[in-house]
């Protein structure tokens, strides 16, 4: 029975379920070779390296994991600087490109230098792109319409801490399991990630869920033939479409 398992085993499984991760996905995040099924069954001890990874990735208190503390999370330093920077052949920092496909694994490989080697990169010989870390991310979805179209790229500068963020800027936010492009609003309970498209509600996150933050400074686009559409017009058109569809369904 589950109650007969060591408390660290029970809480390890509890964490995975709270994060909505499969056993395979959780093992990849924690760099555990093979399946973690035996750990959750109590047949294999939880590796110390995995405990360290839980602290590093999710701020999980090791004492809580082993039942010696009621404090589940530890408040670590608020730095959100990138864990890895990429260099060109002359040891100058360049701009790595994270496309939509790569972004699915980006949050899980923040400190894996070999993973970054597979990313294309480029350099901009402009003064505003010196003396700081920059990264390019491809936009996924329509939550930032009309400013950012699906498939466009943003170039973003690394932020040092959450305290430096402002509500007027657009950011690339790296969470524990995904990458999103949003505005950020500070609230009493945490942070709200805000879409420009009003059809998308705010996403509430805790500070400890944020791994990196990049302030968008420019975008790369090929959508020159797209007509300019205001956010109000776009939202109205989409809502009118939903109303029309609903009317048709009710008539059937």
Automatic annotation (TrEMBL):
The lineage of its organism: Bacteria, Pseudomonadati, Bacteroidota, Flavobacteriia, Flavobacteriales. One of its GO terms (molecular function) is DNA binding. PROSITE patterns: HTH_CROC1. PANTHER family: FELS-1 PROPHAGE TRANSCRIPTIONAL REGULATOR (PTHR40661:SF3), PTHR40661. This is Helix-turn-helix domain-containing protein. Signal peptide: none annotated. The keyword Transcription regulation applies. The keyword Electron transport does not apply. Keywords: DNA-binding, Transcription, Transcription regulation. It comes from Flavobacterium agri. Residues 12-65 form the HTH cro/C1-type domain. It comes from the Bacteria.
